[in-house]
Amino acid sequence: MKKNLLYSISILLCCLLITNTPAAQAAMIKTSATVPDDAFYTALSQLLQKHVVEGQVNYRSLQKDKGELQRLVQQIARYNVKGASAAERKAFYMNAYNVLVLQQVLSHYPLKSVMDVPGFFDKQQFNVAGERLTLNELEKQKLLAPYRDARVHFALVCAARSCPPLLNKAYTPAQVEAQLEDQAKRTLQSSTFIKVQDSSKKVLVSEIFKWYEQDFMQEAPSIAAYINRYRQNNLPPGYRLAYYTYNWDLNDSSDR
């Protein structure tokens, strides 16, 4: 019996020595970081599919899952982007932006418009992967500046009626480019986002194209040319481009 006890202790000590090596610790850290990250994308998709329909948000029903939303906010704060691929960073920061918008809306709900909340985009700071950032800083510093991809504008939700429709699942590192392409096509072929008026020979487009003109012009010779990249039927040649007034009413489907 004594011999068996000594044998068991020696095995335990060997295991402790092996797991205490730098390589073993690195592997453990990598594993512990990967599992929550995967869980983040899964949990977010489940939440969005439950409360987002046709690009609009049922904030009243989302309130019932505010605990789950808060857990996502906590995961965003702890998310480890060190060593992450460009695709993972891109997907993570887009998801983080959308989650934080939803969380901030709920913290002021019921709400007519996010414009009624002082500093909604440019003053309120959030913990994003260990950094304190406003929504504007998150958009510009973590997405637009490093990726120079104008499609991002169709993926971020600003919680307004005139926003591009919110995707009802998470952006994932493996699918982010295909998801962005689909989202651009979905948005730019929508008759509520791009309004072709044959009677006046005008095309009314979102003010997003005015506010972020340079982002689109770096990818195409004109706004119309950029839009046509994602449409099955091109905008009619010769039609004048104009902007319709942005509707900042909350993208709330609760009463529909």
UniProtKB/TrEMBL annotation:
Boundaries of every DUF547 domain copy: 84-186
Keywords recorded for this protein, A-Z: Signal
Residues of the signal peptide: 1-26
Family matches, as InterPro entries: DUF547 (IPR006869)
PANTHER family assigned to the protein according to its UniProt record, in alphabetical order: ELECTRON CARRIER/ PROTEIN DISULFIDE OXIDOREDUCTASE, ELECTRON CARRIER_ PROTEIN DISULFIDE OXIDOREDUCTASE
Descriptive protein name: DUF547 domain-containing protein
Annotated organism of origin: Pontibacter diazotrophicus
